[in-house]
Amino acid sequence: MPVIRVLETPAEMAQVEDLQRLVWPGSDAEILPGHILLTFAHNGGLVLGAYESEQLVGLLVGFPGLYPLPDGLQPKHCSHELGVHPDYQNAGIGFALKCAQWQMLRQQGLSLATWTYDPLLSRNAHLNIARLGAVCNTYLPNLYGEMRDGLNIGLDSDRFQVDWWVNTRRVSRRLGRRPRPGLSLDHYTAADIHTLYQVSALPDSPILPPEHFATPQAALALVEIPSDFFALKRQDFTLARAWRLFSREVFTACFGQGYLVTDFIFDRSGNTPRSLYVLTHGQSTLTD
User: Model's pTM, two decimal places?
Assistant: First the structure.
């Protein structure tokens, strides 16, 4: 596993700048400069680095924020960036950085961290929802406007804002040495849980969004997304845009009816992988 360090010096921030360019290539306009990173680090924020043999291979950046409650504003942590070197992805580095962040936020006495991610990226959904225990009932259409980096260029920057309640049993169990085993798709199928819509495609054929969906009526529901949205975008940009608009409609409708995302399933049992969000009605699962 990598060595996780708190970064605080100009030399370290220069390394973070360079790694950002590898993770989000194509435009320096999307890169956080070293002086901003130093300001975060020296004023209650957090810049973490993951090192393999003295090479920076992962980064995490966050800063203090506020969120409203009926009795006034409360402090939170805004987790802004999490990135891993392209040669070191799928090795648990992102999870290790988030675990270090979790420990530090608890030491600061904070109960909530929030961040955003593209809801059509199944790998990010698996980390944020299934492994870290974050939940979501906020859909933000085109949050950042036009983005010019190689990963985001050309599509509206729609995002989930997730809530990570760091002191809950839900989060502690998922980050523990014996994390909660996730339910498989077979479990939900056996329980006859309603799927709002189902991605159906033959292997190597386009994955089309359905023409219609029915809003859920039960306590639980499943929402399926393409398992590799980046590949879909490379193959058919028009189809990727159709998925963006369709998923925006689905999640906005469901969140408006009181549902929240509480889990994520990545199923490899069939000929093609399947990726599905689990929607739960109400707030009862925040501490499960």
Answer: 0.90
